[in-house]
Amino acid sequence: MERTFAIIKPDAVARRHAGRILERIENAGFQIRAMRLMRLTQAEAAGFYAVHRERPFFTGLVEFMSSGPLVALVLEAPDAIKKWRTLMGATDPAKADPGTIRKEFASSIGENATHGSDAPETAAFEIGYFFSGMELVDK
Ligand code: IDP
Ligand code: MG
After folding, report:
1. At the N or C end, where does the chain have fewer CB atoms within 10 A?
2. What is the average pLDDT value for the chain, to the nearest integer?
């Protein structure tokens, strides 16, 4: 089993797509190990995306990720990191495969409905950034 970190981003929550995205997550066979509705400060969003701080889109990304409530999740499944990124689809919804979450729910490359960790090290950092050990529910 593997765990990954997921976000239903502020655009998808604002458009009331959270329920349908959670349904897609459950139908794909993930176990939800942690889940919280929350709003990030700009500093919290900047810390989460610190790896992107030199990129031209960083300021807009921080603004967007702190613009309204999001749903933070820990998902568990065999090969969860790759499995969730495949279900999300490409970063740019225009390039995402049919049937993926970003193809269906994202409006642009910036406001693209969901986040998913890209490697075991980033999953560990991101899970720990949002959740304490006691919030991970597995029994
Ligand atoms: P990922 O979310 O598919 O892993 P990353 O390259 O890690 O994509 O970028 C993180 C987030 O930054 C994206 O999900 C998206 O919200 C935003 N982003 C990435 N590239 C661009 C861009 O070219 N313009 C605007 N926003 C971008
Ligand atoms: Mg990424």
Report:
1. C
2. 98
- Ligand 1 in contact with 129 (CB < 6 A)? no
Which ligand 1 atom lies nearest to the CA of residue 115? 2
Domains and CATH numbers, the chain: 2-131 (3.30.70.141)
pTM across the whole model = 0.98
Exposed (0-12), middle (13-18) or buried (19+): which is 49, by Cβ within 10 Å? Answer: middle
